[in-house]
Amino acid sequence: MGSSSSSLGPPDPVAPPPEATADPASPLSADTAEAPTSSAPAPLFKNCWSCRIVSGSGLIAAGSYVYLMARRPMKLGLAPGPGPIAQMTIGISIACWGVVILIDPKGKAYRVA
Q1: What is the rounded CA–CA span in Å between residue 112 and residue 53?
Q2: 91: buried, middle or exposed (CB in 10 Å: 19+, 13-18, 0-12)?
Q3: Residue 49: which residues within 8 A CB-CB, separation 6 or more?
């Protein structure tokens, strides 16, 4: 019961992290005394064109829904209170977030073929 294989293969070798191999007590040499140059932080996840379309349009749809549900009592003639106004603001914010994802103003995203 369980595994269909009776023998396990050799375990994959795992390299130790770079922090574990460096000796923290050793002083820095003259070559490494200057500050390390770091590039821009790596994105948390890769953005592909189809992912941006799906998530951006989904956020626009969600923001529109939140906004329209807050407008429903006003269409019936009720005065807007602070709750529906806050809900409308949040709905507009969610929709704007979706537009930003679709437009990608800084050009960080790229097409994945």
Answers
A1: 13
A2: buried
A3: 109, 111, 112
Question: Alpha-carbon distance 83 to 73, whole Å?
Answer: 11
Q: Which residue has the tokens 């073929």?
A: 113
3-state secondary structure the chain: CCCCCCCCCCCCCCCCCHHHHCCCCCCCCCCCCCCCCCCCCCCCCCCCHHHHHHHHHHHHHHHHHHHHHHHHHHHCCCCCCHHHHHHHHHHHHHHHHHHHHHHCCCCCCCCCC
pLDDT digits (tens, 9 = 90+) for 3-61: 555 555 565 566 665 555 555 565 555 555 555 565 655 555 556 788 889 999 999 99
Residue 62 exposed, middle or buried by CB count within 10 Å (0-12, 13-18, 19+): middle
